[in-house]
Amino acid sequence: QDLQIISTDENQVFVAVQEWYQTDTYNLYQSDPQGVYYSILLENVRSTKQPEENVLIDILEVRGVKGVFLANQKIDGKVTTLITYNKGRDWDFLKPPDIDMNGKPTNCKPPDCYLHLHLRWADNPYVSGTVHTKDTAPGLIMGAGNLGSQLVEYKEEMYITSDCGNTWRQVFEEEHHILYLDHGGVIVAIKDTSIPLKILKFSIDEGQTWSTHNFTSTSVFVDGLLSEPGDETLVMTVFGHISYRSDWELVKVDFRPSFPRECTDDDYESWELTNLQGDRCIMGQQRSFRKRKVSSWCIKGRSFTSALTSKVCECVNSDFLCDYGFERSAPLKSESSKCFADFWFNPEAPPEDCVLGQAYTSSTGYRKVVSNVCEGGVDLQQNLAQHMCPLIAPKGLQISLREESLAVKPGEDVTFIVKQEQGDTLNTKYQVDLGDGFKAIYVNLTMTGEPIRHRYENPGIYRVSVKADNVAGHDEAVVFVQVSSPLQALNLEVVPVIGRNQEVNLTAIILPKNPNLTVFYWWIGNNLQPLLTLESFLVTKFGETGDVRVTVQASCGSSMLQDSKVVHVFDHFHVLPLKFTKHLDMYNPDIPEWREDIGRVVTRLLAKETNIAEETLMTVVKPGLPTTADLHVLLPTNQPKRKRSVTSDKRIAAIKQALNAHNISFFLRGGYWVLVTLADSNSDSQRLGGGSGYWAIVVLFVICLVAVGAFILYKFKRQ
């Protein structure tokens, strides 16, 4: 689900990976020296989501001593702190102190009780986080946490170690901001609180004793701590504000007058780095450091170096960790445990880049920890078995378009890329079929990386396949390419008036048609979830009366168009089916605009002749030939319900009278008249739901055709 880079030091990558089953934890992985193959180090490291989707992983690289990390592991809701001295090969709990800061017994005994630390960064960049370390102060770690069986969020007691986590001491009962001066020779602490302060605490003996100092006469709200450039500095600045409306107050604190002299060699003593088991050989060497004696009151200065000596050790089992594809049986135990192959990994299998005729070595399950400098002794990598690379069947064959989109236009250049994850490539033939009759056989296709270029001239869906074949086996990859012209026009045709709960056909007309290549999205009313069809029509019903907006989107390739119409849904109205004389069919271009114009003309003439409100009449010309139409006679909205049928009958009678009197006709340019007559004088119209008669309107039409080349352009002059 997510990946966070933890460290890229010393030719190695540490990453935290959140896998599909994790919500608030990550698994810690470590790479080989090339950063390609990763092995798991620690599972279920706690994570915390911050504002703006930032994620904090509870793992901290201890500065000053290479290979030392702290991590918080969360299992079954319980968070515990772990430490490693060899880059995650072994993890252990932090040993609790025997007494607290007041000299009383802590009664904290393993395995039921350990020390746990908060490993979070500070939101304020001018204060320390909950754990503070420094490159020039090796072994010195100061952090906030608690004693117990697990980490408690509201407990932030301060603990310190000067031997890199072997022994810990409690120094404060509340969290403090920490600043190291003079290579850790002076530790400054100011309480993390929301109340104003004027006292700071400092220690010159690695936290064994603490002194107080009034850094200002007026209490201030502390916003941060800063030291002057240089690790040897003894000058710091406290900045804050007296009130929330005041400007910043900067207070300089200079510890130099407190030290009478520079330190000499006699003022230092050495200490050796060991892990929690007391082993001195860590990361393949014994390392000793020097620190100032407790009794010496002097300045370390710019020339101070903490590293004293280092001695290379003979290799032992703990200098090796599990190789890629292997896991340890007891990852938290420091004692030696064997590495076993994962269920998905075959140690004898040849590598993916194995070439026929070359040799490869199979892993024993171990490799030396990166940056470990041990020599001689145990070598868990010895006796590696040599194998000759066999002919490997192709596997993981892929074909894709460089343009990334699988929808292209006719005549557009298309570039196919063929890749193969595993298997032999030198002795493999690749049969390519581009789906339009083009077929070819390639050799070394995936090695050369040369793309296959092609161009499809005609719209359609093309099945593109590539088959890799050698003596050991074969593999095939298929991709479907959609070749279509961009949509140019979309028109939604729907009967504007429909009865409640009656079926209605919604039809989308597109140009060009692109059959089987267009997807239609239908939105009915205020529904946010569209209906999807491959057909250009949808049959539906409307259960409520009123105006319903219908919207259709047509998607073809990378183009998308939209049209929208309003359907009026009624309980009662009349429909008079109409038909026209054959003269009209000769000039019917069968396009939506023409049908709309004809419908408006007929509606306007009927309304004018009968004095019926035009908004209650609607003539809908149907698609196709012969030319037909429906005349919808709507009930007036302001008419009382009990009088509607009478009123409707009078209006229909008026329409019938106008038609019988041959009063409905109009003239088009060209001088050609058509007489209007009734097709069936004995029929009558009925309400919606009953039978209906057919009224004929014979309209006088003259169509002016203008031919240009091979095109016939239609323009109906709107009246």
Automatic annotation (TrEMBL):
Cell compartment(s), UniProt: Cell membrane; Cell projection, Dendrite; Cell projection, Dendritic spine; Cytoplasmic vesicle membrane
Membrane topology designation: Single-pass type I membrane protein
UniProt keywords, alphabetically: Cell membrane, Cell projection, Cytoplasmic vesicle, Disulfide bond, Endosome, Glycoprotein, Membrane, Postsynaptic cell membrane, Repeat, Signal, Synapse, Synaptosome, Transmembrane, Transmembrane helix
PKD domain sequence ranges: 420-490
TM ranges: 693-714
Superkingdom assignment: Eukaryota
SMART domains given in the database record: VPS10
Gene Ontology cellular component list: dendritic spine; early endosome membrane; perikaryon; postsynaptic density membrane; recycling endosome membrane
Chief site of localization: membrane
Family under the similarity heading: Belongs to the VPS10-related sortilin family. SORCS subfamily.
Protein name per UniProt: VPS10 domain-containing receptor SorCS2
